[in-house]
Amino acid sequence: MDFKTESKAASDHIDVLKEVPVEAMEEISEEYRAIEKRLVRKLDYTLVPMLWVLYLFNYLDRNNIAQARLNSFEDDLNLKGNQFNIAVSVLNVGYMLMQLPSNMLLTRTRPSLYIPVWAALWSIISASTAATHSFRQLIAVRFLLGVAEAPFFPGAMYLLSCYYTRKELAVRTALLYSGVILATAFSGLLAAGIFSGLDGVHSMAGWQWLFILEGSGSFLVSLVAMFILPDFPGANTGSAKWLLTEEERRISVNRISRDRVSEKTIDGSVWSGLAAAVKDIKTWIFVIMLTGNHSAYGFNNFFPTIVKGFDLGNNTITLILTAPPYLLASVVAFAVALSSDRRKERGWHMSAPMVFSCIGFIISVATLNKAARYTAAFLYICGCFSSNALVFSWAANTLSQSPEKRACATAIINLLSQLGNIWSPYFFPKSDGPRYVMAMLLMMASTVISMLSAMLMKFLLVRANRKLKADGAEQLFTL
């Protein structure tokens, strides 16, 4: 496959490197593999950790409003009725509106600048929450924060899919996603420390310090990211300029070219990529799959309340007890992703964890035993996060007929699946506490929808692989 065909976005803004006989290098397989191994190792030590730290702050800056509520946030801003709920929800409006246009634009930019610039913007906007004094100001800041944060995750997934092959991507996606899990585990404890140590310092409330400190931290990380992130494969800009050799840049293009499935030729325009993504039924199956998954972990915003209902101790003990399930989930998600990559299989690896989630939800409904319900929380948290980490890598690899289609498809999937995050909070009316039977049943149903979608996708890909084999194609879909 031609260099410009595979990486047209990169060649739009860099000088194409001089022709290097990569094919000749492949004839000396040991040399080629050694260079490829060195390339992957360099990416693992720079690209993945940098995106991981950015994603951790992305999630912290998005959700610190939940911890701020435990301080004097509502009183200081004079929030009434459901105004706090509106402020939480409006972020998703900006988030959904910006994702697709951002990923369409990403294919025509330099990721090493594009992603950090948005990170710097969301950091400033999040920190500016400390200066709000009214509901209207808060709404404006939260909407803009959603717009600024939206480009990161689909953009990060797209960039990973540009550098890692199908058999490598799941583990890196799981590592990236662990940033969210760990941010969830420690965000409450971090807020508790800030509230206890800085509340009232320099006449500022603890919640104001929370926004300022976390926003400042992510701003500093965004500056570092400009030097650590690479641009598209083959480009001699970004970190590739000092990190990769010419041979490694060439192989970064060649290895992905060989890994991609090409069902049909798609011209290189962004709009044709969008049209191809919309017309592909697999895009919409992934939308249903991930929406079901997001609906299933609607417990995420209410987990401290759920644990409080177990009546296992005071608020401090409750906060401590919320961390272990998420810490275990990060380990399990990585193990599942590693197994998925080694076996080159996605469908069963995504569905099996959801079975454990179902069991966890059933136990939560079936018993009042505190220990059993807390144990059940480990099951549904580990199951939901493990399967969610695989969806994006599976989608990016399956919908990869062109860079533009891959970018648009992953953005559509991530955008529409946010509906699960919008309606799942309504699973938890206060009157249903502390058991939240309706929520557990609805989340169980959501896991079933997600599993069925995964099995349908696996069936379609098995059929597509048979057709590719019949046509003599060497590249096959990951099932």
Task: Name its key features.
single chain, 479 residues, mainly alpha, Growth Hormone, Chain: A, 2 domains, 76% helix, disordered N terminus
Give an account of the 3D structure.
InterPro entries: MFS, MFS_dom, MFS_trans_sf. Its main location: membrane. It holds the Pfam family MFS_1. GO terms for molecular function: transmembrane transporter activity. It is found in: Membrane. The relative contact order is 0.14. α15 runs antiparallel to α19 and α17 (315-343) runs parallel beside α19. The two termini are 24 Å apart. Mean pLDDT is 81; it is low at 1-26 and 261-266. The chain is built from 22 helices and no strands. It has helices at residues 3-6, 8-11, 22-27, 29-68, 73-76, 83-106, 111-128, 135-149, 152-163, 166-198, 206-228, 240-243, 246-259, 270-279, 281-296, 303-309, 315-343, 347-366, 370-398, 403-416, 418-423, 437-470. With 479 residues, the protein is mostly helical. Helix content is 76%, strand content 0%. The protein has two domains: 1-260, MFS general substrate transporter like domains (Growth Hormone, Chain: A, Up-down Bundle), CATH 1.20.1250; 266-469, MFS general substrate transporter like domains (Growth Hormone, Chain: A, Up-down Bundle), CATH 1.20.1250.20.
